[in-house]
Amino acid sequence: MIYELRTYTVRPGAVGEMVKAASTISRDIRGDNFGKLEGYWITEIGPLNQVMHMWSYADLNERTRLRAELSKNPRWTGEYIPAIRPLLVRQEVRLLNAIIPPVAPATKGNIYEFRNYRAKPLGGVKQWLDLITGVMPEREKYSKIVGLWHTDSGQPNEVCHIWAYPDLNARAAARGAALKDPAWQEFLGKGTLLLEEMHSTIMLPAPHSPLQ
């Protein structure tokens, strides 16, 4: 399974139009016939005027085939593309391999946090992933992870993970409790030494997002 995370930056004030086009025109055309939609979010804290959407495919060959078929769909080229083209400022694509595939939260109405870290070259990603997967049972005592990936294409030496919380207060409480856990403290002492950069984005799920 391969995952594709697409980040679209739109002009100020255009996020609503983008989400409307994605939730109506695009969703009606695509369904899950051209890749499965895993989640669609609007950035709230961090980079602004962005939407992030994740798709899954059986493999890279299926992604190539389905995207080629989609590009020939007359409704896609005649309705959706003209609707969003004036809104777009920038597009970014990451191809991701899952270490922990997406798991929906037990309840809906969540906020989501996307965290992406750039690890040290030549082995930093593997070492960090070994550490985080080893301590994950301890970390998940405080909040559940939605998914964990390493980037295959788009950003080298990168890991990405998504977490869900009922609200920002719950996020602060969970992270505060985890920081007091000796196992998590040990992980942080080792894991941060393997990283060059850390970024965090708070996201809200769009109405049509499978992950709510």
Structure notes:
It is a single chain. The chain is of the alpha+beta class and 212 residues long. It has two domains: 2-96, 2-Layer Sandwich (Alpha-Beta Plaits), CATH 3.30.70.100; 98-205, 2-Layer Sandwich (Alpha-Beta Plaits), CATH 3.30.70.100. It has helices at residues 15-30, 60-71, 74-84, 124-139, 168-179, 182-191; strands at residues 2-10, 36-45, 50-57, 88-100, 111-119, 145-153, 158-165, 195-205. α1 (15-30) runs antiparallel to α3 (74-84) and α4 runs antiparallel to α6 (182-191). The protein starts with a strand and ends in a 7-residue tail after the last strand.
**Could you give the count of β-strands?**
8
Strand order of the largest sheet: 1-3-2-8-5-7-6-4
Number of domains: 2
Task: Give start-end ranges of low-pLDDT stretches.
Answer: none
Topology, element by element:
Elements: E1 2-10, H1 15-30, E2 36-45, E3 50-57, H2 60-71, H3 74-84, E4 88-100, E5 111-119, H4 124-139, E6 145-153, E7 158-165, H5 168-179, H6 182-191, E8 195-205
Antiparallel strand pairs: 1-3, 1-4, 2-3, 2-8, 4-6, 5-7, 5-8, 6-7
Structural key phrases:
single chain, 212 residues, alpha+beta, Alpha-Beta Plaits, 2 domains, 8-stranded antiparallel β-barrel, 8 strands, 36% strand
Compact summary:
This protein has 212 residues and is an alpha+beta fold. The protein has six helices and eight strands.
